[in-house]
Design brief:
Blueprint (H helix, E strand, L loop, with lengths): L1 H23 L10 E8 L3 E5 L7 E3 L12 H5 L4 E2 L5 E3 L8 E5 L5 E5 L2 E2 L17 E2 L4 E5 L5 E2 L9
Parallel strand pairs: 1-5
Antiparallel strand pairs: 1-2, 3-10, 4-7, 6-7, 7-8, 9-10, 10-11
Length: 162
C-alpha cells in the first residue's frame, strides 16, 4: 500500500514539474540557437561574409562548392562554421538568406554553406575585420573570402592588411 501511495505521489510530482516547465517555456526540448552569417567591409576586399563575432569567413577551393573536405588537422586550423541539429542559419547585413544552407560534415554534424560553399573561420584571424587567410595555399588548397552575392573574391592582400 505504501509503495502504491509513493508511486502515485511521484507521478503527481513529475506531472506538476512537467506542466510548470511547459508554462515557463522549459519543457525539456531546447531550441538550437541560430547561426548568424553577416557581412563586414574588409580593406582591399570589400564586403565579405563574417560570423556573429565579425570574424571573416572563408571557402576552400577543394570543397568544389559541394561538400566539406577540410577535416582533422585542416579543421583545427580552419574551424568549420558548425550548426546544431534543428538550428537554422540566419542572414544579417548584406548576406542573403536564400544562399544559406548546410552540408554534412564527415567529422560529424553539419556545416553552414553559402552559395554551396562550406564556410570556415581561420585561427590566425584573432580580431574582427582581419583576413589573414585570404588567398593562402594551406592545408591542401586555396582559401578565399566570399561576397554577399556568393562570389569568390581572389584578391591577394599585402602584408599590412593581414
Amino acid at each position: 500500500m505504501h509503495k502504491l501511495l509513493l508511486l502515485a505521489l511521484l507521478s503527481a510530482a513529475s506531472a506538476t514539474c512537467l506542466f510548470a516547465g511547459a508554462a515557463l517555456g522549459t519543457s525539456g526540448s531546447t531550441r538550437a540557437a541560430p547561426v548568424r552569417i553577416s557581412t563586414r567591409t574588409v580593406p582591399k576586399l570589400g564586403v565579405v561574409l563574417v560570423n556573429a563575432k565579425g570574424r571573416t569567413l572563408y571557402m576552400f577551393v577543394p570543397d568544389k562548392q559541394s561538400k566539406v573536405t577540410c577535416v582533422k588537422t585542416c579543421a583545427a586550423v580552419w574551424p568549420p562554421v558548425k550548426i546544431a541539429s534543428g538550428a537554422k542559419a540566419v542572414a544579417g547585413g548584406q548576406a542573403k538568406a536564400s544562399l544559406l544552407g548546410s552540408d554534412r560534415n564527415p567529422a560529424g554534424g553539419r556545416v553552414v554553406t553559402y552559395n554551396g560553399w562550406p564556410l570556415y573561420a581561420y585561427v590566425a584571424d584573432t580580431a574582427a575585420g582581419q583576413a589573414k587567410g585570404q588567398a593562402l595555399n594551406l592545408n591542401g588548397g586555396y582559401w578565399y573570402v566570399l561576397s554577399p552575392a556568393g562570389k569568390v573574391i581572389k584578391t591577394k592582400l599585402a602584408g599590412g592588411y593581414r
